[in-house]
């Protein structure tokens, strides 16, 4: 399901087979079948399938974490480091502070939410590009993450939490089912709530949103806060599924966090989300990881492939937006640079007829 600021479902007018999600679904099925054949059916064994979906949970949630920020034309480079920091903090609370697992889990979620809100407030108060703000906070969080326990590994924490990470329900890992619940909640948030629609409106056209009485500043803070909260959820799933955590947790999540939503059809300029596309793209990236493990492919080649696919998705998305803008009666797509922030009090010159979207987003 692709949602924009101006339509509830983007595919209501176009045929479903022309939707990006349909293409991704076909690629996901074809890739899965091809990999199953290439591995001689090993991928279809119960243990392999369970491991596949167990380790798919975190990429899905971390992709959604990035997606909610992209919805307002922002980027969050700190999602991977924040996931690792929340994971280390929760393990420290269980092992060093002696707190029960439920308290540690809630603390990880609260920590992710707090850091996300701090990112949003920094963007709003300083008017600095969100890319730069989250780059700085990423570096700070990486230092804090290392300071929790140095290079050592936390293990042997709550048996109940680790048992949950190993548990399966109807053949599906419990952590994967939690990720699916998060997917449904995020989809409902953007499709059915006023707050979610306001986020899309702020990302699609900040000036028009402000004229409609929507606070763009509030949208930025909420988006970053939700991104941090989802990073906290990913941290909890990591702690439960892995059974041990160390200071390197989260280092490999930055590229997947961008790959899932961008390949899934989310616009870098904001105003559009695709929950279904993000999930399907995360599935495809996971297939590439499994292929690397099965055939011993150099991980650097995997990064190169994923990076090339992301770049291609960005180029195709840009071309699609240009073609869409040429249709009669179609709204003009956003053209501002991602990560820009528009203050609520700004009075841009876009009130003049013929002004560009860049002027709408420009701060005085």
UniProtKB/TrEMBL annotation:
Residues 328-355 have a biased composition (Low complexity). Residues 327-364 are annotated as: Disordered. InterPro entries: ABC_transp_permease. The chain crosses the membrane at residues 21-39, 51-70, 101-124, 131-148, 168-191, 220-242, 262-288, 300-319. Its main location: membrane. It is a multi-pass membrane protein. Pfam families: BPD_transp_2. The keyword Ribosomal protein does not apply. Coiled coil: none annotated. Keywords: Cell inner membrane, Cell membrane, Membrane, Transmembrane, Transmembrane helix, Transport. The keyword Disulfide bond does not apply. It is found in: Cell membrane. This is Autoinducer 2 import system permease protein LsrD.
